[in-house]
Structures are given as C-alpha cells and as structure tokens.
Amino acid sequence: MNKWNKFLLVGLLASFGVACTSTSETQTDETQTQQDAQTDSRSGAQDQTTIQSDPFTDPSNPLSTTTIYFDFDRSEVKAADREVVMAHARYLADNADVKIVLEGHADERGTREYNIALGERRAKAVSQLMLLQGVSQSQIDIVSFGEERPVALGHDESAWSVNRRVEILYPGR
C-alpha cells in the first residue's frame, strides 16, 4: 500500500469515527430527553408530548377546521383546503362507524333554487374528495341550505365570502 492510500484510509477511518461519535451523542441526548420526560410525568408535571388532546379542538390539527370556503359561483375545493378535507377523510376511513353531514351553503346572490343547487354541488365536491380517499358513501350525508342559513348577514363581500361554505358536521360531537 503506497503512502497516499494509507493517508486516505486513515482519513476515512477518522471521519467514520467522528460520525459514530456524533450519532452516539445524539442518541445520548435523546435518551436524556426521554428520561427527563419520564421524571416530569412521575413528579406530576405533564409533558406536552404525552398529553392526549382531542384532535377536533386542537388548533394545530386540521380536524379542528370544519368549514371549507368557496369562491363566488364555484364548487371546486381550493388547494389550500384540500389538506383539511384529506385529514377528515383519513379520520373517517380509519373510523368506519363514524358518520358526517356535509352542509352546503351559498351567499344571497342568485335565485333560491340556484343557491340550493350550488350548495349541493359544493358538498358533493367535498364528498368526492373524501370518497377518493377510501371513505364509504354510507358515512356521508349531504344537505344543501343554499342561502337560507348565513353566518354573516351583511350585503358585501366580507359577508358573502363566509357564507359560501361547506360545513363538516359530526353528529353527536
């Protein structure tokens, strides 16, 4: 073995030793963190990672969002809301005994009949995304209220924008 090969071999072994050392230090830090968490829980303090929170009330969980908003005269689920719909779909697919009601709504513009149909199209759009994720049709009921149940009573875009929605309701929750 020539001088350069030995030099490269020593360098490679040295860097391997450093990598092993940093991994073992990381493992030691993780072990200490776990031990600290166990000590805290034994002493009565609750570690945030061990608290089991209700996913429907935890603001960091997409299941806590139960309203999907729509653009004017549209029934396509916005890209920004797909994560929320998918989270509900995963929950339903994992809990086959759970049922939901999708309530479709529209703003006051348009005829009563048109808004009932638009609310239904919106609810069906949310339902379709869920069905594609493995949710059973028997778990989903669709109702359209059109413009009949506004959450805001104004006659401007700020009111209309919150009235164009689908509400995901879990009966009994």
Account of the 3D structure:
By secondary structure, this protein is an alpha+beta fold. The protein has two domains: 3-50; 62-169, 2-Layer Sandwich (60s Ribosomal Protein L30, Chain: A), CATH 3.30.1330.60. It has a four-stranded mixed beta sheet. The N and C termini lie far apart (74 Å). Helix 2 packs across helix 3. Residues 12-28 and 37-50 have low confidence and may be disordered. It has helices at 3-42, 79-94, 112-132, 157-163; strands at 67-69, 100-105, 140-146, 165-169.
Numbering strands along the chain, what is their spatial order in the largest sheet? Answer: 1-4-2-3
Percentage of helical residues?
A: 40-55%
How many beta strands in the DSSP annotation? 4
Q: Which H/E pattern describes the elements?
A: HEHEHEHE
Indicate the CATH architecture of the largest domain: 2-Layer Sandwich
The residue ranges in which pLDDT falls below 50 over 5 or more consecutive positions are 12-28, 37-50
Q: Give the helix tally.
A: 4
The CATH superfamily of the largest domain turns out to be OmpA-like domain
**CATH level-1 class of the largest domain:** Alpha Beta
Largest sheet: number of strands, sense, barrel closure: 4 strands, mixed
What oligomerization state is this entry in?
single chain
The CATH topology name of the largest domain reads 60s Ribosomal Protein L30, Chain: A
Mean pLDDT: 82
- Global morphology: globular
Radius of gyration: 27 Å
- Provide the structure class: alpha+beta
Q: N- to C-terminal separation? A: 74 Å
